Amino acid sequence: MILEKYDELNQGQKQIFAKTCLKLLQNSFIARDKEDNKEMYYFLLSFKNYFDEYFDVMDFEIVLDREMGAIQLVHREGTNLLRLKKEETLVLLILRILYHQHLVKTSVNDNIVIRVDEIHQYYDSLELKKKINKTDLVKILRVYRRLNLIEPLGDITKANTRIVIYPTILLAINTQAINDVYNLIANIEDKNEGEDNEETD
Question: Which domain holds residue 93?
Fold first, then answer.
């Protein structure tokens, strides 16, 4: 069935199909508003049944949110989940919170844009013994850029550089309730405090 449908595509469509499949398998997310994702996003919308059948064979499922303009590829057994370190998790949660904070004061049609130093400021406001340094933050942000969650608008090593946060961040963190995100950060803080107490005992 898949091969029959695939043969109905012209050569150009076959190339975009392959490119889109590879992008999803490598990065898990496609953001409509990210310039180099746009063609793949709309192609998947037009030929979603092709992708559904193709990925179903490998036990993957496509999660599509048209309103947000976000696509995620999810393995039904969870084998494509990214294992994050504590700092990576915290930065992701902070990005989610900043997305929410800026969303309430941003026009519906505008992208959410923050600055690098906003991430640093929020991280520093947490009661953690170890603060994140610039080098580690840059490495983490580059990972999230590759996953199509963000897009820096300039030199990511500079504090005043702006960063677009795409709605794919809402799929990356499996909760729509912002209070859940605050609770996740609080749990990490509590765990960190417990580790500090163990060290000083």
Answer: 86-200
User: Alpha helix locations (H) across 64-148?
Assistant: 86-103, 116-125, 134-146
Contact 150, 165 (CB under 8 A): yes
pTM comes to: 0.85
What is the count of structural domains for the chain?
2
Structure tokens at 184: 């996740």
Task: Give yes or no for residue 65 having a pLDDT over 90.
Answer: yes
Q: Tokens standing for 106?
A: 């941003």
- What gap in Å lies between CA 27 and CA 178, rounded to an integer? 24
If asked whether residues 24 and 105 sit together in one domain, one would say no
Say whether 150 sits in a helix, a strand or coil.
Answer: strand
Q: What is the pLDDT of residues 139-186, one digit of tens each?
A: 999 999 999 999 999 999 999 999 999 999 999 987 666 777 778 777
Q: Is residue 194 part of a domain?
A: yes
